[in-house]
Write the structure tokens for this entry.
Amino acid sequence: MEVSILMGVYNDADTVDTAIASIFNQTYQNLELIVCDDGSTDGSSAVLEACQRKYGERLVLLSNKTNCGLAVTLNRCFSVAKGLYIGRMDADDRSSPERIGRQVEFLQAHNEISFVGCCAYKFDGDGVYDTVIYPPYPNKRDLLWGSCFLHPTVMMRRSALETVHGYCEQKSCLRCEDYDLWLRFYSMGFRGANLQEKLFYYYEGSKNLAKRKYRYRVTETIVRVKGFYANHMLVRGLPYVIKPLAVGLLPAKLLLALKNRNK
């Protein structure tokens, strides 16, 4: 098996079958999808069982007895993965049919790159409303402002993910597992890239930005301090350390207005 796709599911009964279908409808077929139900209570398990009957052994199902969080769930998926390349997928998103094949081709042609994402369309209940464009070859200084990769679009070399020991499961990384991972990758000398094609449909509802709790702004600050220090850019990055705390103090209506202005 050349590619293993990791997916965590938590109360995604309405969308997970579409997300799974988008993986098995890829033009590239030498893959497995490993899905872990992270203690769902909405009937997701029944949907997943129906999907397994449909797709067979290429869909590997795991389950957590209680909700453990994304980092623990993805690490559990990774522990049984067979692929040389480890991809991500979220249960409320969709991958374009060419996504996996394009990323495999890119990694095979660029030995200096250890992980690759792509650009994406944003959608909500009313359809596509925006695009997500990231730089083709971010350097570590690009991470000062924020993440330069859209987590569910990323495919990684197995060897790189093993070197950094997977996702951080500490509470200090809660809801920032991806940003922490990119910072640790760069601190170890690994480089990332983004395909400039929009090969992904990323679900983001209009109220998502306002819903982020302040304690997650605090965890992001901790991740920034640790990650900037590991990358020898803490002094340069001090103004950026307080960014999530400052943003978290803005009224929710103002955050939504700023977001809508940039659509």
About this structure: The first strand starts at residue 3 and ends at 9.
